[in-house]
Amino acid sequence: MELLTPTRPGLSRLIDGIRPALRAGDPHLVATAVAGALRDSSPGIEILTADERLGSDAGIGRVVLHTEELFSIQAVIWRPGQVTPIHDHIAWCAFAVLQGVEEETLYRDDGTHLTMLGQSVNGTGEVSGFAPPGDIHQVRNPGNDTAITLHVYGADLGGGRSSVHRTYDLPIHPRPDRT
Questions:
Q1: What pLDDT is stored for residue 6 in this prediction?
Q2: Is the dihedral of CA 129, 64, 137, 118 positive or negative?
Q3: Which DSSP symbol is given to 112?
Q4: Strands (E), the chain
Q5: Can you name the residues that pair with 129 across neighbouring β-strands?
Q6: Strands 127-130 and 93-99
Q7: CA–CA separation, 68 vs 57, rounded Å?
Q8: How does pLDDT run along the chain (179 residues), one tens digit per residue?
Q9: 8 A C-beta contact, residue 62 and residue 74
Q10: Number of neighbouring beta carbons within 10 Å of residue 74
Q11: How many angstroms separate the Cα of 91 from the Cα of each of 52, 118, 146, 163?
Q12: Alpha helices in the chain (DSSP H)
């Protein structure tokens, strides 16, 4: 008896759009090209089941949608107020906000402390990408509704692997004045 995997609406089209973007070479260029593929062919929240879209009180929900040697696609479900630790990544990443709002705070590691570089609020439909080094950030859902983001990472995250390289527990200094 063959076990059929449920189809994820829009996933095949997204995968087909990502593969050519991987040829960009430099990780920053790949992240930008994959962000373009996400912008062009990002599926809607229907890529997740109704139960998956609920998230979890126990922590930020994650649903791995696709893995292969060069990249993985993961949906992240953020209930109101859920927040990541300050962290960086093992590889480039591109993401799209499918529902709700996410707030990202960027930091620089100055050895004995982190310096806050700025914040951005990304709403439904916004897409971005980044690559290490310089990818230290913290992300949270500042809204009153569940947020859903779709992430493409430049690594095989199969078998429960994490995209996080390390977390930071250093004092935080405010952003320097720009005068």
A1: 55
A2: positive
A3: S
A4: 61-67, 72-78, 87-89, 93-99, 101-109, 114-123, 127-130, 137-140, 147-153, 164-167, 172-173
A5: 94
A6: antiparallel
A7: 30
A8: 444 445 899 999 999 999 999 998 899 999 999 999 999 987 999 999 999 999 998 999 999 999 999 999 999 999 999 999 999 999 999 999 999 999 999 999 999 999 999 999 999 999 999 999 889 999 999 999 999 999 999 999 998 899 999 999 999 988 776 55
A9: yes
A10: 19
A11: 25, 22, 26, 7
A12: 11-21, 27-41
Residue 161 has what DSSP assignment? -
Burial 152-171, CB ≥16 within 10 A → b, else e: bbbbebeeeeebeeeebeee
Amino acid identity of residue 89, one-letter, is H
Residue 128 tokens read as 């971005």
d(C-alpha 171, C-alpha 108), whole Å? 12
- Count of Cβ atoms closer than 10 Å to residue 38 Cβ: 24
Burial class (CB in 10 A: 0-12, 13-18, 19+), 80: middle
At residue 178, the pLDDT reads 58
pTM of the model: 0.90
What's the number of CA atoms in the CB half-sphere (13 Å) around residue 173? 11
With residue 134 as reference, give the H or E element that holds it.
none
